Amino acid sequence: MAREIKALRAHGLRVALDDFGTGFASLTHLLTMPVDVIKIDKSFIDRLGQGDPSLAIVEGLIDIARKLNIRVVAEGIESELQASMLLDIGCELGQGFLFSQAVSRQIATGLLVRFGQTVGERKGPQVPFSRAN
Predict the structure, then answer these.
(1) From the CB of residue 85, how many other CB atoms can be counted at a distance below 10 Å?
(2) pTM of the model
């Protein structure tokens, strides 16, 4: 699998581990899979709050990813409070209903053209967690 991922990356594609922290997407994959992005599962984002273990886990994942030069996307952001907490702990990229409901392929393409990042770009959108609509 790692060899196949390296081949994809050699063609300019970037690879993400979806639903990171649950099921088959675990920390051990960071040792064996050459990924560019981890997408922190919504189940951790749902529970973000002071004193909840999810905050410590998400913060730790962001720190690990930063040290490994891997981008982090928080999945399932639904509130301004979640977005604010994520920004405070260094997560600059996110997705969820706070920013947009599900849209058609044509609209998604337009959003990517407008707000998407180019290969090699290391920062988030010009306005972190900006609303796409």
Answers:
(1) 20
(2) 0.76
